[in-house]
Amino acid sequence: MKRKLLILLFLVNNIALFAQLKEQQFFKEVYNSALTNSKCYSWLDYLSNTIGSRLSGSTGAEKAVQYTKTQMETLGFDKVYLQEVMVPHWVRGKKETAYIQDNKTQIKVSICALGGSIATPKKGIIAEVIEVHSLNELKDLGIEKIKGKIVFYNRPMDPEKLDTFEAYFQAGDQRRAGAIEAVKYGAVGTIVRSLNLRLDDFPHAGGQSYGDLPEEKYIPAAAISTNGAELLSKTLKSNPNLKFYFKQSCQTLPDVLSYNVIGELKGTEHPENIMVVGGHLDSWDLADGSHDDGAGVVQSMEVMNIFKNLNYKPKNTLRVVLFMNEENGGEGGAKYEEVSKQNQENHIFALESDSGGFTPRGFTIDCDEINFIRIQGFKKLFEPYLIHSFTVGEGGADIELLTSKKIIKAGLKPDSQRYFDYHHAANDKFDAINKRELELGAATMAAFVYIIDQKGIE
Predict the structure, then answer these.
(1) Is the pTM of this model over 0.70?
(2) What is the tens place of the pLDDT at every residue in 309-326?
(3) Number of domains the chain is built from
């Protein structure tokens, strides 16, 4: 009996060792494929340099839908299709202008209208400025000190936070809700310090909201570059009565029909279980959005290209989803979840890349404790590729709404120290992308999809 038990333990250990060696070998093949035979860099080159910016509702967004659909049709999916979604159509209009009026001197500064903002009057706005560092400061100042002025939100991203995304979200309330709060106290406009950790002359766009305000109470909202913010703050200290002028001609047009682009490969063993990998196809209009989120789009497509090159057939159904309208509405993610619910689909895993194309470090994971512990057990497979960070966190804006009985959501976590140098700004261009870093990110995503496909979820 004891001998039989020893033989059984020997067999079990050998089977486990064989499985581990198989996984290690497949990981090696995944990374080799990505670094020697990938298409993601050339796809991004076309998206960025031939199509350009892709704000939802724009011609660029429409061209990107057709281009990525055509490319996905070459990758061996069982089907590639478009999922209809109505999206906002906001346009920037003519380039914005702004200056600081310090006595008789006009000092030009760089600004850009925030997404969803209204235009200024045709002649622009000129008014005194009140500088604040939080939304709460408005309450302390009150209507008497704010009415008729431009509110200047000047709280920087916290440089002490190593996780730059944490710093971004903490500072972001002044951009997202700055206009709503300023209106309550009679402000005529808002200027927000760009969400960026370095000092430069690039104003950073991004969405803002008027919430439930009636349209007649809307005020124009713009971002100012970090250099401009520093200059405005310094000049205010020497002349609190200076005035600020800005002019923008943006407008919101009727919603437009657009699409999520979806490629689907049926699972060989559990086709009823769906794994999603994706990024968002739209970008802000100031640049071509190579990091945000052209990188995530092509990395997601590359996952399927890697599997095709390695002749890997997933056990579970794999969908590559390129979401539309993450930047100024989130309608693509909402529509995907709506259709999924209608079809009573069972998603077990969703992975998003929307943090730039820099060197991958790991993943943020949103799941129950049992599955998180299991995922931690996969770290040894990733460590030879310098992937070491598996932390609790959000998967991504497009997959946030996705619900199923039990699902693991994850976000690719690249090194984030330089990401906000480019995020939503005019320098988010193809020349900011490193080919090898982009490919490593795609490989890391493919490896994670593979191990979840093999191991399943609890």
Answers:
(1) yes
(2) 999 999 999 999 999 999
(3) 2
